[in-house]
């Protein structure tokens, strides 16, 4: 019984970490446990019963299959276990969430023993994770006259799996806990450097905020046992930066409630809040768990006698406290009045958190139940030949006569399913849409695979055009954690039907390409909807939504997603770009000018940014759409000219073909199919049958922003402003400063060019700058390390073919070797150029980091505390975000350059060809 003994050893090791036994997902271990249960004299029988009942992972795991089979034996009387009666065995099956458990329940319900069939049917009526193989069995049995099958279908048609659940309680008592002041990044809830432990929920829970915070939360729970602890971002937004299902899991683990007494470490229903609400993609993740996210608005603009905002010496709007939510404050959430109270005092309307759809999520324990439940009810009604009984809240359909459609409204209307036929839908409508492209990344992928197992999915939905599993977040260091996790993940996803960065059979070279860049290449229709397991799933073709690992799993399993059509903000440009400016400066200027135009209000937050970048190909335009995640936008859409779109699609076709040539296509030839889609789209544009997507001339926007390029006269830098006296102003992306602010004297300790915010053009700029500097000074000498991580191997290959990689090699002191990748993270940097493997590298912060307390100049998007660089006792680490030329020159000089130095360094380099599009303006 060596596997069981190994498990006992692991248990002892975990005790030393203050952890419980790891949940069991392997069939072989559970098989030994079952053997010991059957042996009434076995010394380990009592522990084995506990492991079997309370510590086995449900769904489609191998262990779940063994558990379901053993429970079937007990129910049929083939095995007699006094501690597990047939009735208890059925109860355990009811908590196993689909897959083998549904197969067993169907065997029993459609079997010959009438009493068992009735009992099994009662359990089946509570289940909703049924797939085609399961529903086909029910349909076949019903059509052959089976009364039990009819009874089950009638229950499904009435949606009794939902209607018989307890109603949401009217009053929810909470006690507040200020998790942080200012925007709270999901890194605080689930640090990137702990990504390796995300699939071990209890272990990962140890990294929530800090041990001190965990103690404070437990103290509040002890003082208020009848209340839920509500985590708050005071003077900020909760959950910025990424969706981070692991962050919600951690919050739920510490403050939520158990999903099932028989499923370990899976908690649901966390309650989170922010002065400025919840980040859109993080809120979707909260919905997955049936949680509640509140927009407190407890700090408001201070107004003068004329009703105008009062500003301080820095020009920032002064805020005043409308009501206190200090740690330990007891509040009441009323789900009926949809108000927040302190005692009898009404504080604020919170109805946005309790829409009919969100109330259903709360009642059902999460959004999955509703998605699968609706599909199951539709199937049952169709099979019985009856009309669908109105049970679920009707989807809100907003249709305004005479009003045109924005670009996102057009895409949602094209891809909508289940909406009123012929009805044109506008922003605010709740829509179920088909998903074209899905992406899973490697530090959330293990959780996605767990979610797929828990919802009993075994194969990708046939309506998904293509899906990709990346290896980019663990690309920097091929350490023992990666060796243990990544091959297992790749095999699961490859078997499931995704194109995978690593071939489990080892038949093609392992790729570490950044997920967003690959998705940008495999998106071959600007009418597509993309769902990806990262906040930066922001394509420059189609509309893409960053999502949690659960929503990614749902999209993979069903080919669908549900969400309201967001409002849009239109962004156009006027004026001319200076020759010495980089497009990244336009991106930063957009955020800066928008905030000034709207008095500090971020009109992008929670909305679609419809940006009119008609003259830029997908690679360059991606720089803008990628950054929109940090603008707190829900998503972004790039409006392109016909010729530019065709050029982008041709580039995408070429890169997909390279993936095919490397052997990455699967049996269904998904990649080949994407090339066919691209060819059809190009033909439709060229023929005039279907030009590139544009909004209607009479579309309505929440706001329209015009960016004046004439006033963008020097490089722009997003500064974390780590020493701002107002803590809430630190580590936001809203402090955009001109290069001259730093006076050419701010020390820079390390530079980073790489990850998703750069494209091939950036690396060509780097190559040209090195040659320029060599000519100007006679040599290239770095006074600070420069780390370069290309986004994809395709780009590296293209740079090699065009001669630029040779230049980078000439000036580098380190070049990655895929035949011998680093086994441990770098702890110190020399003043040289490092050519790292394609992937996320410093931007992710889970493997490589800058030295503590460093000032980093990066092309990244991550300036959050502790992400790229951590603090020391005496100095705060800071990650300033800028263009490739600024980063490169800062490392050559060891400080921020002056404007004159910058201009000299980029002389003769074509940084961008961007200019406002006049063709698009003419078209509509």
TrEMBL record:
Coiled coil region boundaries: none
Query: Which InterPro entries does this entry report, sorted A to Z?
Result: Acnase/IPM_dHydase_lsu_aba_1/3, Acoase/IPM_deHydtase_lsu_aba, Aconitase/3IPM_dehydase_swvl, Aconitase/IPM_isomerase, Aconitase_4Fe-4S_dom, Aconitase_B_HEAT-like_dom, Aconitase_B_HEAT-like_dom_sf, Aconitase_B_swivel
Q: Which organism is it from?
A: Flavobacterium sandaracinum
Q: Which Gene Ontology cellular component terms are annotated?
A: cytosol
Q: What is this protein called?
A: Bifunctional aconitate hydratase 2/2-methylisocitrate dehydratase
Q: Is the Calcium keyword given for this protein?
A: no
- What domain of life does the native source organism fall in? Bacteria
- MF GO annotations: 2-methylisocitrate dehydratase activity; 4 iron, 4 sulfur cluster binding; aconitate hydratase activity; metal ion binding
Aconitase B swivel domain: from which residue to which, for each copy?
178-405
The UniProt record lists the Aconitase B HEAT-like domain at 6-162
Pinpoint the Aconitase/3-isopropylmalate dehydratase large subunit alpha/beta/alpha domain residues: 409-894
Which UniProt key words apply to this protein? Iron, Iron-sulfur, Lyase, Metal-binding
Does this UniProt record's set of keywords contain Iron?
yes
EC category name = lyase
Give the record's GO biological process terms.
propionate catabolic process, 2-methylcitrate cycle; tricarboxylic acid cycle
């Amino acid at each position: 019984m060596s596997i069981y003994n190994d498990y006992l050893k692991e248990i002892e090791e975990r005790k030393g970490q203050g952890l419980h036994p790891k949940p069991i997902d392997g069939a072989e271990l559970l098989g030994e446990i079952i053997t010991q249960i059957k042996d009434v004299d076995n010394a380990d029988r009592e522990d084995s019963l506990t492991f079997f009942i309370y510590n086995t992972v449900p769904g489609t795991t191998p262990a779940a299959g063994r558990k379901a089979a053993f429970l079937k034996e007990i129910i049929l009387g083939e095995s007699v276990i006094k501690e597990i009666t047939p009735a208890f065995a059925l109860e355990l099956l009811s908590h196993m969430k689909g897959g083998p458990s549904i197969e067993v329940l169907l065997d029993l319900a459609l079997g010959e023993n009438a009493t068992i069939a009735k009992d099994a049917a009662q359990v089946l009526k509570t289940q909703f994770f049924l797939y085609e193989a399961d529903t086909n069995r029910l349909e076949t049995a019903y059509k052959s006259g089976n009364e039990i099958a009819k009874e089950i279908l009638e229950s499904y048609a009435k949606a009794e799996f939902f209607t018989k659940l307890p109603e949401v309680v009217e009053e929810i008592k909470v006690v507040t806990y200020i998790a942080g002041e200012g925007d709270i990044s999901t890194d605080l809830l689930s640090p990137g450097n702990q990504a390796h432990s995300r699939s071990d929920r209890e272990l990962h829970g140890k990294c929530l905020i800090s041990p001190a915070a965990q103690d404070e939360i437990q103290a509040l729970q002890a003082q208020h046992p009848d209340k839920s602890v509500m985590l708050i971002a005071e003077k900020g937004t909760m959950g910025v930066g990424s969706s981070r299902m692991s962050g919600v899991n951690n919050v739920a683990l510490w403050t939520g409630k158990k999903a099932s007494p028989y499923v370990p470490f899976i908690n649901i229903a966390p309650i989170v809040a922010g002065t400025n609400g919840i980040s859109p993609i993080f809120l979707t993740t909260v919905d997955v768990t049936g949680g509640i996210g509140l927009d407190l608005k407890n700090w408001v603009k201070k107004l003068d006698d004329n009703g105008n905002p009062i500003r301080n010496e820095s020009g920032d709007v002064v805020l005043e406290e409308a009501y206190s939510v200090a740690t330990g404050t007891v509040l009441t959430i009323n789900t009926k009045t949809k108000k927040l109270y302190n005692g009898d005092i009404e504080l604020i309307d919170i109805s946005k958190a309790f829409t009919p759809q969100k109330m259903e999520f709360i009642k059902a324990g999460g959004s999955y139940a509703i998605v699968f439940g609706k599909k199951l009810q539709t199937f049952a009604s169709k099979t019985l030949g009856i009309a669908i009984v109105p049970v679920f809240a009707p989807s809100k359909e907003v249709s305004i006569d005479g009003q045109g459609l924005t670009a996102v409204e057009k895409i949602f209307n094209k891809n909508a399913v289940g909406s009123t036929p012929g009805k044109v839908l506008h922003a605010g409508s709740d829509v179920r849409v088909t998903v074209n492209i899905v992406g899973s990344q490697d530090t959330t992928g293990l959780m996605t695979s767990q979610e797929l197992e828990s919802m009993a999915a075994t194969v990708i939905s046939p309506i998904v055009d293509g899906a990709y599993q990346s290896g980019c977040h663990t690309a920097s260091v091929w350490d023992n954690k990666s060796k243990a996790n990544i091959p297992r993940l790749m095999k699961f996803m490859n078997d499931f039907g995704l194109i995978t960065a690593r071939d489990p059979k080892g038949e093609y070279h392992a790729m570490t390409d950044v997920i967003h860049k690959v998705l940008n290449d495999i998106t071959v229709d600007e009418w597509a909807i993309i769902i990806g397991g990262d906040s930066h799933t922001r394509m420059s073709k189609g509309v893409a939504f960053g999502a949690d690992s659960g929503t990614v799993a749902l999209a993979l399993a069903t080919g669908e997603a549900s969400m309201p059509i967001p409002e849009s903000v239109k962004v156009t440009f006027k004026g001319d770009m200076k020759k010495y400016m980089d497009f990244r400066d336009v991106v930063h200027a957009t955020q800066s000018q928008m905030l000034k135009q709207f008095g500090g209000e971020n009109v992008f937050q929670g909305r679609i940014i419809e940006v009119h970048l008609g003259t830029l190909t997908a690679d360059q335009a991606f720089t803008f759409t990628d950054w929109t995640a940090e603008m707190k936008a829900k998503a972004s859409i790039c409006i392109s000219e016909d010729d530019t779109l065709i050029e982008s699609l041709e580039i995408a076709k070429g890169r997909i073909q390279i993936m095919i040539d490397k052997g990455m296509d699967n049996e269904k030839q998904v990649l080949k199919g994407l090339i066919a889609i691209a060819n059809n789209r190009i033909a439709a544009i060229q023929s005039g049958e279907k030009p590139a997507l544009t909004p209607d001339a009479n579309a309505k926007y929440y706001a329209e922003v015009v960016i004046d390029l004439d006033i963008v006269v020097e490089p722009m830098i997003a500064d974390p402003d780590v020493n701002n006296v107002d803590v809430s102003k630190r580590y936001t992306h809203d402090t955009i400063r001109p290069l001259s602010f730093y006076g050419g004297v701010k020390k820079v300790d390390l530079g980073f060019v790489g990850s998703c915010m750069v494209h091939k053009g950036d690396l060509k700029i780097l190559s040209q700058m090195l040659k320029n500097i060599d000519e100007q000074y006679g040599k290239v000498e770095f006074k600070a390390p420069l780390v370069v991580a290309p986004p994809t191997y395709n780009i590296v290959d293209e740079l090699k073919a065009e001669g630029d990689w040779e230049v980078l090699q000439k000036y580098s002191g380190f070049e990655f070797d895929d035949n011998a990748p680093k086994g441990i993270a770098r702890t110190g940097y020399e003043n040289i150029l490092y050519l790292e493997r394609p992937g996320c590298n410093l931007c992710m912060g889970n493997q490589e980091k800058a030295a503590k307390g460093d000032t980093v100049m990066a092309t990244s998007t991550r300036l959050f505390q502790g992400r790229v660089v951590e603090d020391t006792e005496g100095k705060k680490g800071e990650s300033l975000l800028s263009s490739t030329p600024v980063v490169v020159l800062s490392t050559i000089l060891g400080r921020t350059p002056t404007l004159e130095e910058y201009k000299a360094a980029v002389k003769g380099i074509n940084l961008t060809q961007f200019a406002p599009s006049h063709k698009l303006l003419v078209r509509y």
